[in-house]
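Thread: quick sanity check before group meeting

JM: Hey all, I'm pulling together slides for Thursday and realized we never actually wrote out the predicted structure for the chain we discussed last week. Dropping the sequence here so it's in one place. If anyone has concerns about the input, flag it before I start.
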Amino acid sequence: MVQYDVDLELLTNFLDESEESIATLDSLFVELEQQPKDKEIIGSIFRIAHSIKGLAAFMNLKAIKDLTHNLENVLDSLRDDKLCVNSTIIDCMLTGFDELSNMLVRVRAGKSQVEDENKLQELLARIKQLSDSNIHGDKRDTSAVLDDVSGRVEEISQQVEELDGLQDEILEEVVGAEKDKAKDVAAVTTGRTMRVSEEKIDVFMHYVGDLIEISESFNLLQTRIDSNLDTQLAREFKDVNSGFNQLSDKLQKSLLAIRKVPARTLIQKVPRMVRDLANTLGKKVNVEVTGQNVQIDKSMIEALESPINHLVRNCVDHGIEGPEERKKAGKNETGMIRIDIAEQGEDVIIKIEDDGAGIEPEKIRKKAVQMGLVSAEQAGELSDREILQFILSSGFSTAKEVSDVSGRGVGMDVVKTNVESLKGTIDLQSTPGRGSTVTLQLPSSLTVLVVNGMLVSVGDQQYIIKVEDIYEAIRPKTEDIITVQGYAECLHVHGQIYPLIRLHKLFGVETEITNPAEAMVILAKDKDNRGAILIDKILGQQRAVVKELDKQFSDINTIAGTAILANTRVGLVLDIPGILAESLGGGVIE
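JM (edit): ok, ran it. Output follows.
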């Protein structure tokens, strides 16, 4: 372990801020490559490098300071038109900042800044060669020489200051760097900020969950008081309880907002990844992103990064055709990948769309039969959309060759597993010759999931059904109960047929109410199924704090979690889409 002679909190803040800044550079360099004369982009990159250099000098991180200083020299030459932006310069700068990022990771881990001194010196030589050249070749004008001399004098001056222990000028540079950095963020800065560990926020969130459970108990108590007393005390309690409910609700929403970060942090590496991969494959691909300011829980961001990257890589590798093939198809030789992030109620919708070759359903159909996933007869009965879902199966791949990019049949099933572990869903659509779209639907937060639920009973058991999962609640008539071949009991209502799902049979609960005409039915739908869920009665509505099931129960698709009910009993929160899928086997009656 390397002990750095600097305050740990200051060092941690420096590492956090530097890593956050560097993470934005990939997309900035891709933009610069597309708009090489845009001085604002160059200025933004330069200010990030200048800020890191000044802070690294203050932290006595000489290797980081030296590398950043050399990168800054190249940026300065670009800014002053002594160099012209081209792919060689972009590649070298990206390599330099990648190494800088690796240095920061090593410092955080308590390791030496430099892992391979020879490799670093080779990189520094490449960068210095760029800064020593200009648009006219190897001839150097007076200003370039003066800039180089100025840089060397600055290095010597800083070394003398370090030896003498004099840090006034360095501090001034740090302050100046922070001022430069402030220019970039002035438009979005609204006040002072504070770094708080995620663990502390999570603990606080659990306390808020407990507060909401107490709030629901107070609501139950309020109902009992209202039914038995009509006194001044009862009315005062009602007023106080109303204020308490509002406060707990605001506190929950505020804390959820604290955990959220802009979605741009999820896709900021995508443009660089697409650029590098497209160059490797000899393709031309642009990326268009909308909804970067949508707020997503930070834990979701970290869990989604790998699935998103894999989906985008698939678009570049399998989706987008080569330039010549695209021209023959009457398309622009540059392919387009669009990523759209949007909020929909309490969910976040992420769409990844490409304008490539699309997917041939027949290829998937033949491969599914060949792998034994479905019989030839069954495959012929499935719709093209249903056939596409086999792509999400483990080991499924139609790639003719195995490459470094893809083709081993691992990836899409992992994407599906990761998305489902986040309580999300994945949907795949494609049109041959026009492109494909993958849609992810996920909850905006997993930390403390508070749902508006309908409390229902079956026998002596009580369950919570999320209000958003309920299409309608009705008491059916005897003549509405019919039998449809292959689905047994069904409910015919509003001109549609809903397979009847008896909850007491699904969970093995004894009940005296088995006649649908004497019970209540919850009509539920999702994108794949619809059904009529038979319950005894509806007890009321309440907010519920959903607790995840232990890992040993993770395979149960019919239960979303548990919740403490207002009467302090433990109730199960039902996963309605899971119940529909499990009970109906993916079938839909039209």
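AS: nice. The two ends are 66 Å apart (CA to CA). Residues 198-228 form the longest helix (31 residues).
JM: adding both to the slides.
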